[in-house]
């Protein structure tokens, strides 16, 4: 039976002739999936898209794999991929160089990031001064999983977004001319920024593309703004990127928290026995994330680092700036109680006798440059980030005007009452007339933060209207233990989390149904100056619609949708439909029936822009790859499973006589990265 080759058109979203659900549109081995453990083998990275962004790591332009259109796929075209050029890494035992093996990857808006490990498997020797303040971090990098010598590689435009969009609109000849003026030249020992001065014509073209003077003249910007091949980005203190599945040990716990940073505090004395502190999350989850000119990575010591654009504080380093050029720690990654104790301890140990302002303002977050616990997962939106530590605490930072930080407690439109010109007395009277219990409300906290803050409120006091049953649905009341966070994700302007009690929450831009909206434009709420079907939510909102007593095991977010993989193999999603801009945020809908994906053989679950990808194993040791989208019609959702066309090309490719199997898929704005293994 011939496979479908396209994942882009509605006309191809049909079941095979036998009308049975299939595990990818039908493969040459149409069979019942067998249960098998995940195997840890690593390999290469492939990509599709165009190279002018540099995200394909193909310095020789023209050697690329543009994404085929729907018409080309329907005509029988097969999407090809190009291998990303991975650098060789020197073996520490003096055995020469060996090709790096790609472990995980991420595709941003105009750049790619990979975590690779040396094929040598050599021990990484960190050189550090034992008297240095970073000594513990260096020792951890040396001793913790010392046989996993990992590196962070980046290519493309990791510090750029606006210029990227302007360059895309330029005609190809003008775009190439602008790029040639701003591309650093390799001199064999890195990048040489003292040559390749742009001509007057190149300056004019760069101006049209939006390139500012810094891009032409400043050394740092020239060095990092455009990287046409995968280049290592070193982490501070000789740390290495962590790998998903690595253990969060007691040794890592002791690198953070009270015992290290507040040793004389009463609560710290109770922590002398490390067995008293038990990590809620035993392993790392997602340790690498990319977005629009933004990258985040968790080190093998549990420290979270970011670099890239920082106009909206999206790096979370405690300050606003145009760029953060090198990996820098996110600040404020601790509970308020820890931050206050840490600040008090620091002030009491200071030798200065000057009168300082010791009030507990927002500055205590930006000044807390240590973490309470190791981070285990990170996700990035367009200009904000979300992170999860090993104790189940969740933190957000960056742009928050649309509620994507989840630090508010009311609807977005209520914070606009002054902007809308509504008299406060009228507002108060309206509240009293409709519900006396809300005569006084807490203000919104839709702020942009240059530091991280913990989200502590996962109690949703409002009902969600079920569109199918036309009834209100309330979130269960959660205890402190039940509200511990297990999974996190981030879309373009929203965030999500799943609690230990298996309850999904979402917050951010346009992710709550407006119960007062009518299609005829009638406005029933005087607090609203515009009637629209969805509103912003500035605090975590419960998502109904999932089947009861079925565990959520993975979550992944595209730009405008969020997907959840359940333990029975089904996938539920909410967001904006692919085929037409219909908001479907109110409750989760099924986009893949159960018993298609055998989660015991799950390899990866990811989402990028409008698509969700699932990779799992079959009984013959091969791989099945599923691509699905959120469609507006139920029939399309139930029949929307497709197999990416590039799978046909990849299966025919061999390297050194060995077949390549897909490990994970990462879709960016103008390119897609496919991680394979042997």
UniProtKB/TrEMBL annotation:
Residues 1-43 are annotated as: Disordered. RCC repeats lie at residues 302-355, 392-443. Residues 27-41 have a biased composition (Basic residues). InterPro entries: RCC1/BLIP-II, Reg_chr_condens, Ub_ligase/GEF_domain. Pfam families: RCC1 (PF00415). PANTHER family: ANKYRIN REPEAT-CONTAINING PROTEIN (PTHR22870:SF466), REGULATOR OF CHROMOSOME CONDENSATION (PTHR22870). This is RCC1/BLIP-II protein.
């Amino acid at each position: 039976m011939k496979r479908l080759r396209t994942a882009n058109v509605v006309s191809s979203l049909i079941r095979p002739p036998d009308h049975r659900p299939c595990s990818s549109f039908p493969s040459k081995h149409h069979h019942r999936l067998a249960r098998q453990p995940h195997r840890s083998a690593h390999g290469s990275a492939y990509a599709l898209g165009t190279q002018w962004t540099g995200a394909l790591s193909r310095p020789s332009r023209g050697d690329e794999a543009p994404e085929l259109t729907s018409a080309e796929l329907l005509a029988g075209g097969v999407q090809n991929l190009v291998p990303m050029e991975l650098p060789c890494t020197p073996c520490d035992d003096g055995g020469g160089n060996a090709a790096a093996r790609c472990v995980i990857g991420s595709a941003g808006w105009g750049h790619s990031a990979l975590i690779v490990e040396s094929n040598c498997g050599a021990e990484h020797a960190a050189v550090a001064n034992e008297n240095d303040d970073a000594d513990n971090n260096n020792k951890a990098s040396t001793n913790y999983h010392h046989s996993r010598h990992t590196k962070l590689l980046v290519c493309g435009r990791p510090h750029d977004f606006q210029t990227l969009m302007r360059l895309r609109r330029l005609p190809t000849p003008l775009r190439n001319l602008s790029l040639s003026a701003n591309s650093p030249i390799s001199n064999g020992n890195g990048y040489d920024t003292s040559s390749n001065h742009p001509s007057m014509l190149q300056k004019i073209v760069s101006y049209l593309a939006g390139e500012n003077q810094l891009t032409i003249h400043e050394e740092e910007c020239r060095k990092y703004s455009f990287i046409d091949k995968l280049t290592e980005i070193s982490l501070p203190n000789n740390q290495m990127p962590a790998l998903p599945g690595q253990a969060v040990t007691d040794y890592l716990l002791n690198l953070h928290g009270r015992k290290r940073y507040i040793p004389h505090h009463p609560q710290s004395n109770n922590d002398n026995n490390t067995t008293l502190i038990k990590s809620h999350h035993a392993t790392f989850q997602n340790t690498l994330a990319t977005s629009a000119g933004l990258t985040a990575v968790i080190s093998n010591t549990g420290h979270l680092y970011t670099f890239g654009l920082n106009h909206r504080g999206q790096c979370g380093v405690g300050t606003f700036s145009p760029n953060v050029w090198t990996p820098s720690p996110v600040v404020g990654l601790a509970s308020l109680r820890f931050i206050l104790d840490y600040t008090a301890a620091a002030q009491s140990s200071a030798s200065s006798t000057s009168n300082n302002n010791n009030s507990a303002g927002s500055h205590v977050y930006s000044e807390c440059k240590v973490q309470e616990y190791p981070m285990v997962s990170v996700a990035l939106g367009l200009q904000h980030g979300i992170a999860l530590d090993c104790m189940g605490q969740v933190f957000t930072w960056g742009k928050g005007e649309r509620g994507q930080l989840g630090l508010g407690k009311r609807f977005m439109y209520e914070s606009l009452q002054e902007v809308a010109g509504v008299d406060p007395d009228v507002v108060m009277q309206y509240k009293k007339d409709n519900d006396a219990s809300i005569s006084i409300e807490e203000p919104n906290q839709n702020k942009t933060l240059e530091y991280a803050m913990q989200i502590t409120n996962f109690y949703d006091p409002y009902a969600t209207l079920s569109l199918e049953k036309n009834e209100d649905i309330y979130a269960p009341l959660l205890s402190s233990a039940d509200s511990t966070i297990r999974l996190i994700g981030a879309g373009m302007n929203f965030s999500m989390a799943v609690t230990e009690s298996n309850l999904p929450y979402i917050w951010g831009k346009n992710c709550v149904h407006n119960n007062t909206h009518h299609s005829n434009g009638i406005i029933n709420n005087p607090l609203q100056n515009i009637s629209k079907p969805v509103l912003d939510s500035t605090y975590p909102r419960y998502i109904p619609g999932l089947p009861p007593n079925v565990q959520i095991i993975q979550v992944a977010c595209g730009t405008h949708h969020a997907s959840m993989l359940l333990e029975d193999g089904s996938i539920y999603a909410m967001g904006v439909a692919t085929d037409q801009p219909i908001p479907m945020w109110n409750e989760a809908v099924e986009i893949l029936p159960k018993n298609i994906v055998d989660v015991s053989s799950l390899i990866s679950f990811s989402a990028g822009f409008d698509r969700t990808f699932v990779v799992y194993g079959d009984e013959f040791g091969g791989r099945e790859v599923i691509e699905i989208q959120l469609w507006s019609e139920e029939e399309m959702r139930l029949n929307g499973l497709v197999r990416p066309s590039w799978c046909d090309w990849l299966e025919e490719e061999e390297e050194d006589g060995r077949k390549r199997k897909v490990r994970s898929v990462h879709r960016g704005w103008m390119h897609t990265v496919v991680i394979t293994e042997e």
